[in-house]
Structure formats: structure tokens, C-alpha cells
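Reproducibility note. Readers wishing to regenerate the assembly model reported in the main text can use the exact inputs given here. Chain order matters: entities are listed in the order in which they were concatenated for prediction.
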Amino acid sequence: MSSSIFDSSPGDSNPGGDFAAREAAIALPPRNTALRRFCRHRLAMAGAIIIAILVLGSYLGPYLIPYDDTFIDIMQRFAPPFSGAHILGTDELGRDMLARLMMGGRISLAVGFTAMVISMGIGILVGAIAGYYGGIVGAALMRFVDAVLCFPSIFLLLALAALIEPGVASITLLIAATAWMDVARIVEGQIRGLRERDFAVAAEALGASDLRIVFRELVPNAVAPIVVAATLNVAKAILLESYVSYLGYGIQPPTPSWGNMLNNAQIYLTSAPWLAILPGLFITLAVTSFNFLGDGLRDALDPRMENH
Amino acid sequence: MAPYLIRRFGQAVLLLLVVSMIGFAILHLAPGGPMAQYAIGSNMSQEDLDRIAQQLGLDRPLPVQYAEWLWRMLGGDWGTSFRDGQPVLHVIGSHLGATLQLMLTATLLAIFLGCWIGILGAIRRYSVFDYLATIGAMVALSIPTFWFGLVTIFVFSVELGWLPAGNRETVGDGSLLDMLHHLIAPAMVLALVETAIWSRFMRSSMLDVVNQDYIRTARAKGLPRFKVLTRHALRNALLPMITVAGLQMPTLLGGALVTETVFTWPGMGRLFLDSISYRDYPVVMGILMFSAAMVLIGNLLADMLYAVADPRIRLG
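Running the prediction on these inputs yields the following C-alpha cells for the assembly.
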């Protein structure tokens, strides 16, 4: 299943959309032009490099700077960026912004990555079962996917988050619980197509178990769209974390995340705009990078699916 | 056409049924379940609570409860808000106008801008504009909507002082001009993601059409390029956009929730968030079901409109 620009063919009953639409809408322009190749690979490469810098910065950075992300220094409140000892300034409690952005990056990236792994696990499992067995089981599973997709992700995520005790682990699980459906659709389509192919029929004729056919024969052959979906899912998960944390139902302070750093930044928009601008820049940077990387991977891994 | 419509409608109803089951499950997952309104901050004893539970039928098997809950919902009884005792449908209804106004304005803005960018990108394929539009769309899809809202407020309200920082109208004013003035920023913010999506789909659709034989024929028989583009190409390229429009409902609703929060816009999204913080489960559930229904109706309408607009689509 191609998840390129024209994913949703006319008449396709696809109640999805939402973040999926955001991804589906992307595919860089033309083929076979030097400009395009240059552009596409440069952007995917740039994405990979930025992701590497963000990960290294978040995990090693805190050891390299002299400030702690939780150290409150009332005398140093609202120090603007590039003006003194604190390179990116301080927040409303005088905490170093750079240190908080780094620690927040750890949380946001870890939540994004872990949620991706979990949602891929659920999505691949549901998609594989539905695609392989088909029939009533497959139809029931996919209709369930359709039904969950009817809820806008943010609504579903907030409603569920309100029911539980918010924490890093529970929020990660909830994000995964609202992000697996598109993966299930992609995998289901792939498996359904692949299981009729000769090699799958041969494996079946040789007496291989269902489990073996699915996970040793079919899923490995669908690895390209799965890898692409996984990359885009990290972007989606980071975005979802930022939404739910910004709205106050995600990662709870004092643990910083890029999303919850923006939670009360709006109050200080007039006096200390960097509190709002900096974390958002990092979210945008990370999400854009994963999206470009996913787009580049799609191009590199799956030459068959090309539109224009 | 009739059998097709009936089948599609039947599918939608079935899907809505599954959606309602998920909704019912969430309501019963809520701490205290539907009893929460009596348990929170009330001076009722456990005996009172047990009696009420029995009176409300909460001691009966879940399937029975589900059937009754569903029956009531179909009859328009969506429960009462914990917060002010108003019927849920009434509460949602009083916030719906603001949301629809915002969504509609943003959609129109996005359709206009998105189609324009998409068409231009398709006509001048591989141009600098095309590349910038592509990269711009990717970045636009990656920006958290609420952050774009904050930046918009910072630039246009704090720094430039051109636009109000929030709310739907100035208290005591309420003129049309004042409302439009308040509408600009949130509509712009909500339109960003939509514009990116529309421009990508429009570009793709336009490219599909431009490469068709009848376009070459039209050009070959000497029609001017502009006329071919507007009369032949655009008409057909806009057709699939009906489907795109129908699929935007979840993105729009989610975006509206966030935009309304940033701009203190008194719509359904903000109501949802307020209701969550008040633990007002009936309203939370109501909005969840309502938005899911809107998504389904959007899909259904898109399918039908597409079938009506494109005679090539065989129904049945």
C-alpha cells in the first residue's frame, strides 16, 4: 500500500485522516531530475543528522553544561537568551533553559521512540492477523481499526489520559494506543497481497506453521513500508506527546518535556517569549527531521511506489 | 445509486455502533463510572450510592446497560452535565457554532490557498516554487498547531498589536467587524496544516489530469494554455478533492481543539478540555461520540458527493 500523496483513492472508505493525513500528504516532487535527487536526499540526510544531534545533545549535553535542569535560582529569573551565563536564558523559576531543553528532549524523544515501538508492535500484530486470516476475523479487526480512527487522536488521547494517573510510562502507552491503527492498515494490505504470492504458497505447502509464514516469510517482505511507517510514527508520537503535555494531561512537571515546557509559557508571552519559542522550535525540528527521513526512506526502500 | 447509498449508509451505521461500544467502554473505565457525579464531593453515604446505582440500573449486566445507554442516546438523551446539570446535547449545541465558524473559515482559507499553491506547483513542476512549496508543506505538517498559535499571538498581538490575542469578541462590542477581527488569527492557525494537505493533494491531482490524453488533444487543437488549464484540467482535478475534504474532519476537529485552547475560543474543543478538567464525563463522552459521528458523516458525504459529481463512478 502506498502511503504517498494519493493514498485515499476516490470512494475509498477511509475514516482515518488526522495525523495520517499529514503524513500521507507528503511526497517530494519529481523523479529523475538531479535537482530532485539532490533535494530529497539532502533533506533526508539533514533530517538524520539533526536527529543524531538532538539525541546526542539530549543524552550527553546535560553532563557538559554547568547547570541542572531542576535547580531553581529565583535571582536569575527570566534571563533572556544570549545575554549572560545562561546561553538560552532562564525560565520563570530561574532554571537554565538549555538544561531543561536537553532533559525535555530526553523525555520527548524517548516517549516518541518507545511509543513508536509499541504502536508498531500492536499495528503489525493486528495487521498481520487480519491480513493473513482475512474472513470474519480480518473484517472484524479492520472495522475496529476504522472505528478507532473515527475518533480524532487528540480527543481520544485526552479522554483516556484523564482516566489514568499521568506518568511517563502511562502517557507513552496511551500515545501508542492512539497511533497503531495506520500501521495495522498498512501491514494488513501488505500481508493480504503477499500471502497469495508463490513463496508464501510454497512455504504453506511445505507445512510451515502460520506463525512462521507470517513472521518469517510475509512480514520481512513488507519491511520497507513498515520501516517508513515506523519513522513517520516517531514524528507523530513526538507531536502527540507535545499536544497532550501542552494541554496539561501528559508528562507532569517538574519532569520537563518539550510539550509541557510550553504549558504555561503563554502567560509569559509578552515578557519572556523565548519560553514559548524555544521548546516549539525543537519540537518542529525533531518532527520535521523524522518526516523528511521517513520520506527519504520511502524513496530509497520502495522504488515501486512512485507517483510523479 | 440507491443500493449503493443504502450500503454505504449501513456501513456507516455499523461503524457508529462499534464507535459507541468504544465510547461506552471508556465511560465505564472512568473512575466511579457513570456514578462518579454522585460520588464526587457529595455527602451521600455508601447506602445512598448503592440505592442510586440500583435505581439507575448500574447493577445490571453490562450488555443490558449498553443497550439502554444506546437507546437513550438514539432518543436524544445523552445524559446531563455534572457541572451545571444541563442536558449534554444542549451544552454541546451551545458551543458548536463557534467551532463550526472556525472550522469553516479555516477550511475555506485552506482550500483557496492550498488549491492555488497546488495548481501552481503542478503547472510549474520542478520549479523553485514547487520545491519551496513541497518543503514548506512538510514543515507546516510538522509544526505543533498550538505552538504556531503562540508564535502568531507573539508576532501579531504582542509585537505588532494588529490582532487580538484571544476570545471570540470584545466584551460589549460584538459587531461583525469585531468578530472577524478576532477570527483572523485562529482561522489562520487552524488553516496551516489544512493548507499544506490541500496543496499536496491538489498538486498531485492536477498532475494526474495534466498528463491525460484529452488535455493533449485540447492543446493540439489549438486551445490556449490557460483555457485548457481552467476549463479542462482544473474541473477534473478538483473532483478528487471532494474526497480529500471529507477525510479532513479528524484533522480539523483535533486542530480546532488545540486552536480554541490557545485562543480561548469558546468552542467545542475548549468545552471538551474544560469538561475533562472538571471530570465531566457525560460531556466528554458526548463530544467524543459527536466528533466521531461528524467524522463518519464527513466520509459518507464525500463518497456520495463524489459519486454525484463524477458520472464515471458506477454505483452499486
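We highlight two features of this model. Residues 1-17 of chain A have pLDDT under 50 and may be disordered. DSSP finds eleven helices and no strands in chain A.
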